[in-house]
From TrEMBL:
The keyword Nucleotide-binding does not apply. The lineage of its organism: Bacteria, Bacillati, Actinomycetota, Actinomycetes, Pseudonocardiales. It comes from Solihabitans fulvus. It comes from the Bacteria. Residues 1-24 form the signal peptide. This is Probable sugar-binding periplasmic protein.
């Protein structure tokens, strides 16, 4: 199953992406291409990075579409990442439909025309984009150009071990970051030599799902200033976030943390820290529920929205997800659009995919479907997705490079290499803006 935030792909350089005009039909016209006549056979090629069982789940949904459009044969090809899709576009032989597991390259796809503008199709068919949460609409477009739609989403919240909570005398999950800090201390168990036996919460950047973009919504941290430049140094939320995180790092001691995490299992293995009972609380995506059910079904755990620094932020969280679009040069753009519209907006299709892949369906209508069969521990993620405080990080022409800058800064901060937080954030802003300026050229 896809069921996880995939590791960031290698940054696609600006010069690699095709730069021809982004048009609805792949040529010089901005008129949306018509779907093929039902009497005429057509083959639509779909590329995604799904594999094995996941690819089978997608196939079942594509088969349902074929059942309604018997003239459309779908060539469903898996194990195709963004690099392969981009190379096919450059070579003039792209698929008709491209599915990407990451939003990192959406700024390049849209701005350079590698993925076609879908707005003419949306306008013609009167697709209701209001059925998609604002945060999701934001990460599927760039600077007003919509070259993709969402096809399922990942949503992040708090996982907590109920047995460890009971042993520490804690009756419910924390709602505030202050409560989380105190609970993490209470839940931590140390060995006689002072080393960590059980960690209440792991605050190391880039370990498991603890990444700046995933935690930022908990502090209301904003990425951009009013002029569209990097605004981390001007935003109190980032100072609050890094200050909170450093308190927890100092509580454990960085050396202690390094030794402890070195002995934990990999993120998607059965002995991953939270699943092994060695970490009491974790920030993770909805897909973790499927891993637990498969790998450690006896784990007694609960899920909730991530704690926040301000009460008015509680209930929301971070989201990202799979995106789907028509590559430049697609041979059957009209048929491709009709299939994309089905995968992105049809409630039954989204529910089938959500149930099979254990991801959040990406429209408001599908959230309330009685056919969703994802379990009680999954429900908080549906609620987070529907919350007004749902947030994501902005798309950029430099892909995920700016996220790496922030993560690297966070590591330097927690290691004590950065001591002036406001000054360090100001330098970070300059680094990001300079990279964008070079990327733009």
């Amino acid at each position: 199953m896809r069921a996880r935030l995939r590791p960031a792909l290698i940054l696609v350089a600006a010069g690699v992406l095709a730069t021809a005009a982004c048009t609805a039909g792949g040529g010089g016209s901005t008129e949306p291409a018509a779907a093929p006549d039902s009497s005429k056979p057509v083959t639509v090629t779909v590329w995604s990075n799904f594999a094995d069982r996941e690819l089978g789940v997608l196939k079942s949904t594509l088969d349902a579409y074929h059942g309604k459009h018997v003239n459309v044969t779908i060539d469903n090809q898996g194990s195709q990442d963004d690099d392969k899709i981009t190379q096919a576009i450059r070579g003039g032989n792209p698929p008709d439909v491209a599915i990407s597991f990451t939003t990192d390259n959406i700024g390049q796809f849209c701005s350079q025309g590698s993925w076609q503008d879908l707005q003419p199709y949306i306008d013609r068919d009167k697709v209701n984009l209001d059925d998609i949460p604002q945060a999701v609409r934001d990460y599927t477009q760039f600077n007003g150009k919509r070259c993709s739609l969402p096809m399922l989403a990942d949503v992040y919240g708090l996982y907590y071990n109920k047995d460890l909570f009971a042993a520490a005398g804690i009756s419910s999950p924390p709602k505030s970051t202050d409560e989380m800090l105190e609970d993490a201390k209470k839940l931590t168990v140390k060995n006689p030599d002072g080393s960590i036996k059980v960690a209440g919460f792991l605050p190391q950047w880039a370990f498991y799902a603890y990444k700046p973009q995933i935690v930022a919504p908990s502090f209301g941290a904003q990425w951009l200033d009013k002029d569209g430049k990097s605004g981390l140094g001007k935003d109190q939320g980032w100072q609050d976030l890094f200050g909170w995180q450093k308190k927890l790092v100092d509580f454990y001691g960085q050396d202690n943390l390094q030794k402890f995490t070195a002995g934990l299992g990999q993120e998607y293995s059965a002995d991953m820290g939270f699943q092994a009972g060695k970490v009491a609380m974790a920030i993770d995506g909805e897909f973790r529920t499927a891993f637990i059910a498969d790998q450690v079904p006896t784990l007694n755990y609960g899920t909730a929205p991530a704690p926040t620094s301000r009460p008015e932020l509680y209930g929301g969280g971070y989201t990202t997800g799979t995106i789907i679009g028509i590559p430049k040069g697609a041979k059957n753009p009209g048929a491709a659009w009709d299939l994309i519209k089905y995968l992105a907006t049809d409630t039954d299709a989204l529910v089938t995919l959500a149930n099979g892949l254990h991801n959040v369906p990406s429209t408001k209508s599908s959230l309330s479907s009685p056919n969703l069969k994802l379990g009680d521990q999954f429900k908080p993620f549906l609620d987070i997705f529907a919350n007004k405080n749902l947030a994501s990080n902005p798309a950029s022409t430099i892909g995920d490079q700016y996220l790496k800058f922030v993560s690297d800064f966070g590591t330097s901060w927690e290691n004590g290499q950065v001591t002036d937080l406001p000054g360090g954030l100001a330098k970070l802003d300059k680094q990001i803006d300079d990279a964008k300026a070079l990327g733009g050229k």
